[in-house]
């Protein structure tokens, strides 16, 4: 299964998911994304920036434990879950409706991220 | 002899109805204000503000089409003599009661718009036979009244979040409260944010945002951006669901 397939599978698994993106936190780049409608590059860049800011905050404040690689950002309409792999480089971003349960997204997202990072 | 022009004090407050503020925003906007170009909007309120401003600037009868970039929704308005005469959505003409109704409808229609495009769909359109139209001033007042109510709800949300927190730091006022041992960590984060600060002009609004970053079993870092206010909170991770629920409730309120 390709990276694109895995991202698309995660997106279709979650009922209110708009976008799933896989990126490199060191390179500050979204490498692949799955989404229903077209998404401007600027939006992907913004998500990447937000992910690196969240993880930088966690690192700066000495985050510990399994949840040190997780962050959640809520906006007016969206919920964005950011998950970082143990290698501290690979990360996943899942954008869903504000009503979506972030714990469900996190559980499904971590499973996909482990598969991807394991493959990589 | 020409009478001397009255001097306006530089300290004079902006008009409470937001007219001058809207004019300043328009003046400060980049060249994106032309018909046919996309104008970024940070919220429904800003989208409605742009539409009401447009109503106030059209004297000769025009059919103006307004399109939302992110949702693709378009409405058409017939405007004449700074009055909104008709408003038509994808399902046809919208029946509206008063200016407040117009503003509410526009807010709902342009939720999550991202950017708006104004186009002249027709010059000298056929005016429908109607005894009702909504003057720009009435729309502006209705918008201001709803914004005031929204400001009250915003203050209530901030108060509730502060009450949930072990400690908090308001980046706008530099006020803080709660557990003293948490405040240095909040200040450290505030300093880092200041170094990374890339948000542009003072008139640009920041999108509402609530970030939750787990730090330890007893410390969840919460960063709230709402309007011009930014607040850092130290929250017990056990009440994370309550914080999320309060944020959702604020945005789902009518």
Write a short abstract of this structure.
The complex is a heterodimer of chains A (120) and B (254). Chain A is an alpha+beta fold.
What does the model show?
By secondary structure, chain A is an alpha+beta fold. Chain A has a single domain, classed as Beta-Lactamase (2-Layer Sandwich), CATH 3.30.450.30. In chain A, 41% of the residues lie in helices and 29% in strands. Chain A is built from three helices and five strands; from the N terminus they run αββαβββα. Chain A has helices at residues 3-13, 41-60, 102-119, and strands spanning 17-24, 29-35, 70-74, 78-84, 90-97. Chain A has a five-stranded antiparallel β-sheet with strand order 2-1-5-4-3, with helices on both faces. In chain A, strand 3 (70-74) and strand 4 form a beta hairpin. In chain A, helix 1 runs antiparallel to helix 3. The radius of gyration of chain A is 13 Å and the shape is globular. Chain B has 254 residues and is α+β, with helices and mostly antiparallel strands. Chain B folds into two domains: 19-142, no CATH class; 165-195 and 203-252, 3-Layer(aba) Sandwich (Profilin-like). Chain B is built from six helices and twelve strands. In chain B, the strands form two sheets. In chain B, strands 1, 2, 3, 4, 5, 6 and 7 form a seven-stranded antiparallel β-sheet that branches. In chain B, strands 9-8-12-11-10 form a five-stranded antiparallel β-sheet, sandwiched between helices. In chain B, helix 2 packs across helix 3 (99-109), helix 3 crosses helix 4 (136-164) and helix 4 packs antiparallel against helix 6 (240-252). The longest helix of chain B is centred in the middle third of the chain and has 29 residues, at 136-164. Chain B is elongated and about 70 Å long. Residues 199-205 of chain B have low confidence and may be disordered. Classes of the chains: A alpha+beta (120), B alpha+beta (254). The interface between A and B is medium-sized, with 24 and 27 residues. Strand 3 (70-74) of chain A pairs antiparallel with strand 10 of chain B, so a sheet runs across the interface.
